[in-house]
Design brief:
With 178 residues, the chain is mainly β. The protein is built from 1 helix and 8 strands, in the order H-E-E-E-E-E-E-E-E.
């Protein structure tokens, strides 16, 4: 199931990049909301494929805080793993403040950000009864940092890639300007 979903999402991203590729004269601009799905590699006890979504909106104009602009972003992700006896699921929910750098090529939108989140952890055990076990993991608050970039394939569609510290160290998504 996860392999099929990963293949479908990869095909959608490639389709958007080839079908909509043009001289996209777009940029991360105020008054717009950016929303999109993402696929990532999870960081947690066991890791895994992450499915999620991100929403972001600029909150300052260029020149207010340097040549770039600040934005507020929210993220909701999900992943799970099992080793046969223990099963875990993770739902990280986070809010980020991102700084978007001003660059000459308006198709590119590089950014860096800091975030605060809460991860909801669910654990279960299905091994032999009487086995002394301890789930060892619980829901908690976490700090996060990220660096990434969007590449606008059209004025309203961008491909986003991120590297981060937190529960999503590697992510790839498609953002739609609303």
């Amino acid at each position: 199931m996860k392999t099929r979903l990963t293949s479908v999402l990869a095909a959608v991203i490639v389709s958007f990049s080839t079908l909509l590729a043009s001289n996209a004269n777009a940029q991360f601009t105020n008054g717009s909301l950016y929303l999109g799905p993402e696929l990532g590699l999870g960081l947690g006890y066991g890791g895994g494929v992450v499915l999620g979504a991100m929403i972001e909106s600029p909150i300052t104009n260029p020149g207010t805080v340097g040549p770039g602009r600040l934005a507020i972003a929210g993220r909701l992700d999900y992943y799970s793993w099992s080793d046969g006896y223990f099963s875990y699921s993770y739902i990280p929910i986070g809010i980020y403040c991102d700084y978007h750098f001003a660059v000459n090529d308006t198709r590119w939108d590089p950014f860096i950000g800091l975030g605060l989140g809460y991860v909801i952890v669910s654990a279960s055990y299905s091994g032999p009864s009487g086995y002394p076990y301890n789930y060892g993991y619980g829901s908690t608050v976490f700090l996060a940092a990220q660096v990434g970039a969007r590449y606008f394939v059209s004025p309203n569609v961008a491909i986003r890639a991120e590297l981060g510290l937190g529960y999503l160290p590697l992510g790839l998504g498609v953002d739609f300007r609303i």
